[in-house]
Design a protein that fits this description.
The chain is mainly α and 205 residues long. The chain has helices spanning 3-25, 30-52, 64-74, 79-87, 93-123, 139-155, 158-183, 189-195. The N and C termini lie far apart (44 Å).
Length: 205
């Protein structure tokens, strides 16, 4: 089994989980439907991405015990829809609009930068210093953070923010550091690092 199999299962089940929560709690509010549309679509887009331009870092083999633990941890991302739907709270319209806008921006940055990385590396290895990566070395992670931040906004609870922060520190940040270490073997990396941000775009320098 590979890491991607666990991630893909989680992403693929998200729409069913959110829809099931809506049925279980009889919640057909606009907030619940917007959440289902955003998170459910994100899961389907992830599966399409894995089909068209998969990420090699998620193709590492893992055993069943690690896979089960990983799936349980990924299940923490479902706290946001649970908290929103079980509480019956309805997000105010400005918050809904802000979450949708943030989600769209995140999806764009995440998938478009992943596509650039995948197809450029098929042609030539080395640094990618233009396009989505001109001023930010991890635009794909920035997009993913914005996506899950939009879900946390809709939940209107501190727990999803804590989950996002925990994943950021335990998964995103180590992966970004590991990527920097790998790229440091290429000529020109030091100059590229000076003019680009680790997660957020660096506009000066």
């Amino acid at each position: 089994m590979q890491i991607c199999h666990v991630i893909n299962l989680h992403k693929g089940l998200t729409a069913l989980v959110v829809g099931g929560l809506m049925l279980a709690y009889g919640n057909g509010s606009v907030g619940a439907w917007v959440y289902l549309a955003l998170h459910g679509t994100y899961g389907m887009l992830w599966l399409l991405k894995e089909r068209i331009f998969p990420d090699r870092q998620w193709q590492q083999a893992i055993g069943w015990p690690q896979a089960i633990v990983m799936f349980v941890l990924l299940g923490l991302y479902w706290l946001a829809p649970y908290l929103l739907i079980a509480s019956g709270a309805v997000p105010p319209l400005p918050l809904l609009a802000g979450a949708i806008a943030l989600n769209l921006l995140g999806v764009f940055l995440h998938f478009a930068s992943d596509a650039q990385k995948h197809f450029v590396l098929q042609v030539r290895p080395g640094l990618i210093e233009d396009g989505f990566f001109a001023r930010c070395r991890n635009t794909n992670y920035l997009g993913e953070v914005l996506i899950y931040l939009s879900f946390a906004m809709l939940a209107m609870h501190w727990l999803p923010y804590a989950v996002l922060a925990a994943f950021g520190l335990a998964v995103f940040l180590p992966n970004m550091r590991k990527k920097d270490q790998s790229l440091s073997r290429y000529p020109g990396f030091d100059a590229y690092r000076q003019r680009s941000g680790l997660l957020f775009p660096k506009w000066l320098g």
